[in-house]
Design brief:
Blueprint (H helix, E strand, L loop, with lengths): L10 E8 L2 E8 L5 H6 L5 E11 L6 E10 L3 E6 L14 E9 L2 E9 L5 H7 L4 E11 L4 E12 L4 E3 L9 H9 L35
Length: about 220
Amino acid sequence: MFDGVGGDAPVVSLTLYTDAFIIRGSIVTRHRRVTDILNMADDGFLVMSDVTSDEFGTRGETIRAEFAQINLAAVLFAVGDTKVETPTELRTPKVSEEAMISVPPFKVTGSIYLMPGRSLREALAELSGRFVPVTEAAYWSDVLGEARQTAEIVAVNHDRAQILAPHRIVDPWADVGGAAETATPAETTPPAPSGDPAWPTADIPPEPRPPAEPTGW
């Protein structure tokens, strides 16, 4: 069942992110890569040992358990705590593409690997697997207030993901500001002269002269 003959079964440490929890623990497996552990699970769950479960939020609880059965459908992505090099005989020629992957409430950026000799549209259409590997990854959640972290590899649940490639960040207010700057200023009417604004300046009647002082007084 396990690689090698004799000795202890290999143990791999994993960190799993769900909608509500961060689950840390270890699993006994014959596989070395995090994507193989998740994609080749015999059932729709993993049984982990020495588990710590942290709930998101300021009032979240921390729960410790000797064992825990984790439903893979609830996992947004998994982070491998140990870097594992793929054996040469298992490597498939692929090309890397920078991508942003949305797995609400998290975002993941990094490199995904696609089949060569195809357009990006075709390569994304052929991307398969229950969990997709993302290398040199960064992940965070603005909604949950989870700070940006980095990892050598993150395995993202394909059924929960929207993959954007290539991608760029745009300012939603950029066009609004540009439109305001290029708008033609409205014509302004000069202020009306003093006096009754309903009378044009030329038509305002002259003010009466003060009476002259009588003479000979």
